[in-house]
Amino acid sequence: MSGPIVVGLFIAFFGTSLVIAMRISKKSENADSYMTAGGNIGFGISSASMTATWIWAASMYASATSGFTYGISGPIHYGLWGALMILLIYPFGRRIRQVAPRAHTIAEVMFARHGRSSQLLLAGSNILGSIISLTANLIAGGALIDMLSPFSFTQGIVAIAGGILLYTLWSGFRASVLTDFVQVVFMLGAVVIIIPVVFFSAGGPEMFTTGAANLTNEQSNFFSSEAFFNQGAPYIAAVLAYAIGNQTIAQRLFAVREDLIKKTFVTATFGYGSTIIGIGMLGVIALYAGVTPLDDDVNNLIPQMAATYLSPALLCLFFIMIIGSLSSTADADLTALASIVMADVYGQQVGRTKADPAKMVLIGRITMIVAISAALYFAGSDLNILDLLVFVGALWGALVFPVIASFYWDRVTNVAFSVAVVAALALFLPVRFSWIDMSGAVGVTFDVLATVGIGVVFALMAFGFFGLRVAVVVGVVSTLAAAPWSIGLLHDYAVLSGSLVSYSVSTIVCVALTMLNRRRRFDFAEIAHTTGDFDDRGDAALPEAAEPSPADSRGDEPLSAAAVSGKDD
């Protein structure tokens, strides 16, 4: 595409986003609305925002990379498990909102539940995760600009970073969710048009016959064990961790109307799965067509396929699709980082009742500027998006069981939480990066831990939907069923083994230390009293937030006018 066309598309896309943000901005911004939009977002906006946030440019690129690497089963493993993990959020999400109806971050809730160290572990992991996510999205956008326009990679990431920052800075989270609605319409529409066009332009159904010679036996096998162990299984573990520990997801959980949580996440499940599996087929088409990624960089695969097979008009549509997908997640990362610094750093430092709302908003905006600057710096490095996603997900894996247990089990202590997470990370790192020799007894020991991790993952999934008894049965049965083939094998797959070890160690240590606590019981009602609004000034709700919920988590009475406007009732 020519330079003027690219600039015009940038102005149209980010200009529209800026207009939306400015229409909802206020001279005196409400701090709580800047973080969670008052906790009363309606179904349409919340489900679109959840879908758009989960469908980021990096996930599109990674799905295509998976298809190109593992064949047709690659996008299925990537998209299906990611979609199921969105579905998994809602049962835990309803419990989280029940005990913390007016919270802003998961770390804030952990401070109320345990104390400073647990809060810092969650906040720190999310700061790291959101910076990496920002970086990955800028890399995806830079590759797109470099491939499809006369502008360079560096010019591309600077322009994208500036555009995202410009509209998000105005109204924070509200700007993020409202622009998500527009962005998800572009993304879904583009996928429906672009994938079939590329498929038939590349050869259509005959391609599967003429291009079969380009595939290995594993790539042509729909039930490929290589695809499962290297892509599917690690992603099941990683995305479960994203679902529970990621502040961008938690922020939408705290923002959506409580009675719409299930409906929102079920809708997002189907939207994400269909889109990501569809876009991943670009990688499969490239594999059958014998395409070699430009500069041997799989990050170039999607824009390369678009440039090869799309007409100029569809290329513009594709461009907007990718820019929209990366913007929807990048602005979510910026607002997540702003909320963490506002609520978990400044808010906890001065106290909720003494916080200055105007200063909080200023701190949030400064955080966004610093974060985007850091992401620009790291985007200049040569990073593989798929590795980044799995790595961050595995880090959050150490937090999954301690976080979930803390919302249900009144005996979990701050020591149990903190020691479990640190111990899991201490064993995850050497396994993930092969720092130790896995031969002999050492490999078997880690295989046993990883096998226990399999049981933990399936037990947590079952617990969310069916409760403790079913979860225990599922965990024990899946561990015993996996043991005969997993022990002696899993240590050969560093990514999968590291993630599973992280799950098992955090669970074992957390349970063991919690069982030693026979006296102190936590009253979950304390969380609702400890967490709450920082700003007592009224603020207008988002368009779909005006209709009050039939009842909130504090009783069976309808929400008061003060609750709808963002105040405590």
UniProtKB/TrEMBL annotation:
Signal peptide annotation: none
Membrane-traversing stretches: 6-25, 37-56, 76-93, 120-145, 151-169, 181-202, 222-244, 265-289, 301-323, 362-379, 385-408, 415-435, 441-463, 470-487, 493-516
Amino acid composition bias (Low complexity), ranges on this chain: 540-552
A GO term, aspect molecular function: spermidine transmembrane transporter activity
Location of region: Disordered: 533-569
Location within or outside the cell: Membrane
Topology relative to the membrane: Multi-pass membrane protein
Gene Ontology CC annotation, any one: plasma membrane
Gene3D superfamilies for this protein: Sodium/glucose cotransporter
Alphabetized UniProt keyword annotations: Membrane, Transmembrane, Transmembrane helix, Transport
InterPro entries named among the record's database cross-references: Na/Glc_symporter_sf, Na/solute_symporter, Sodium:Solute_Symporter
PROSITE patterns linked: NA_SOLUT_SYMP_3
PANTHER family in the cross-refs: AGR155CP, SODIUM/PROLINE SYMPORTER-RELATED
Family the entry assigns: Belongs to the sodium:solute symporter (SSF) (TC 2.A.21) family.
Protein name listed in UniProt: Na+/solute symporter
Species: Gordonia neofelifaecis NRRL B-59395
